[in-house]
Amino acid sequence: MRRSTIAIVGRPNVGKSTLFNRVAGGTRAIVHDRPGITRDRHFAPASWAGRDFWLVDTGGWLPGDGDPLAAAVRRQVGIAVAEADAIVFVVDARDGVHPADLEIAALLRPHRDRVVVAANKVDDPATDRVSHLQFHELGLGEPYPVSAATGKGTGDFLDVIVTRLPPPVTQEVDPTIIQVAVVGRPNVGKSSLVNRLLGEERSVVAVDAGTTRDAVDSPLRYHGMTLNFIDTAGLRKRTKVKDEVEFYSTLRTERAVEHADVCVLVVDAADGVHGQDLKVAAEVWNRGAGLIVAVNKWDLVPEKDANTAERGRQTVADRVPFMGDVPFLYVSALSGQRVRRILDAIADVAAARRRRVTTGEVNRVLGELQQRQQPPQRAGQEVKILYGTQVSVEPPTFAVFANAPDAIPETYQRYLINGFRAAWGFEGVPLRLKLRKKRGRR
Question: Which of 223, 296, 327, 436 has the fewest beta carbons under 10 Å from its own?
Fold first, then answer.
């Protein structure tokens, strides 16, 4: 199901970041009393009334045509209006209607069906009953009194904003279609790699980093399956995403990862695996998607031997253990070297992600693992693992029943997962383990 986007706009110091943090349920955006502290955009997943959405916090609208920073922030707001499914226009109920509010309202008025005005800093509704009514002057409909600092009124306001979102659309799951997100830092060759696989120029390729702005779907038929490639914009650390177009490209990439069956993480062989690459890999893994690492530009690596690739992979696995379960492919988009192996790897990982293991086989392997190593015992209580079964796929999830599941430590849970992986493969696929207490008779 596609996650909608809600953008928060307004002039500086009206409480946009405070409202962002209140709705997102954390402190992801910096909150400071100095006007205009938000320069970069922030985004985070949030939900209300059963609707999931991306929440985007923009910089404060600044007047002044000659100020480059003010012009950049105004461009942010303009792109937010174009990109978002709904827009929260935050104003300050204590200050009243400000000239900058009127400027923003003029920009938003053609899109008023997607806009909700939040009159912030109404901390005491009993004494500030009418302070928000002055914002009818903006011509954007009913203003809603809220206090982002205390949370008062935010529930009613959120009830309204989610009604402005497009109706949820659930896509039918077609087992013959594999959604593939191609992700990675800018200029590592993602577009070149997709173009090589597709055999035609479907994505713009340029030397400048970050050329790809939009995510472009490119289907490819392969052995009776459809591999739907999404060539996404380059990922960077969010704190370094300063260009407003690139910011929304990063948000699109997050959306692509969210709905992908398999992600191909492209890294530059010369640069190696960066910390940001590992963060992206961890996000893919935690969301339950399959993962493949494509080490591009392998033909440009000098003085390599038969063990260079394995040493590099082991170095990454030593830093992040789950990466040892991920296939690494060493390719060259420029020459086409080993590129076709990516298609086979995608098909294999997608099939493993959908694989079901019979309950009898699960219990056979579970018994062998316990014979090899019993779970740690708790003082005064024998800890027994009774049986297990696979409860779901995509990703494969196993339920293990025990008399005292809370006594089974994380190290033993990893031992079981590693044992399952050794028995049935699952390369490139995260496995989930749920410990449950046996209730009644089996």
Answer: 223
Residue carrying the six token digits 């800093």: 121
Tokens of 185: 């830092």
What is the Cα–Cα distance from 407 to 378, expressed in whole angstroms?
7
Alpha-carbon distance 29 to 7, whole Å? 14
The answer to whether residues 21 and 43 touch, using CB atoms and an 8 Å cutoff, is: no
Strands 225-231, 216-222: pairing kind: antiparallel
Look-up of token digits 């400071």: 32
CB atoms within 10 A of CB 427: 15
- Residue the block writes with tokens 């009774």: 386
Q: Can you read off the two tokens belonging to residue 356?
A: 């079901």
Among 327, 329, 345, 323, which Cα is nearest to 227's? 345
SS (H, E, C) 138-150: HCCCCEEECCCCC
Answer whether 168's CB lies under 8 Å from 216's CB: no
- Sequence length of the chain is 442
96 vs 246, higher pLDDT: 96
What mean pLDDT value characterizes the chain? Answer: 82
E-strand ranges in 271-419 read: 290-296, 328-330, 385-392, 397-402
| Vertex 140 angle, CA 139 and 144, to 5° | 120
Cis-peptide into 395, omega within 30 deg: yes
C-alpha 15/C-alpha 321 separation (Å) is 41
Quote the tokens at residue 140.
Answer: 């954007």
Q: Strand, helix or coil at 248?
A: helix
Instruction: Give the least confident one: 225-229, 253-257, 269-273, 369-373.
Output: 253-257
Chain-centre distance for alpha carbon 231: 15
Radius of gyration of the chain (CA): 26
SS3 content of the chain, % helix, strand, coil (to 5): 35, 20, 40
Question: Among 357, 282, 341, 286, which Cα is nearest to 309's?
Answer: 341
Q: In the structure encoding, which two tokens stand for residue 273, read together?
A: 């695996």
181-208 per-position pLDDT tens digit: 998 887 888 888 888 888 755 544 444 4
Question: DSSP per residue over 354-381, as a string?
Answer: T----HHHHHHHHHHHHHH-PPPPBTTB
Q: Return phi, psi of residue 59, to 5°.
A: -70, 160
Question: Could you give phi then psi for residue 236, rounded to 5 degrees?
Answer: -135, 165
Q: Could you tell me if residue 89 is left (phi over 0), alpha (psi between -120 and 50 degrees) or otherwise beta? A: beta
The Cα 112–Cα 102 span in angstroms is: 14
Ranges of beta strands (E only) in 152-284 are 177-183, 216-222, 225-231, 262-268
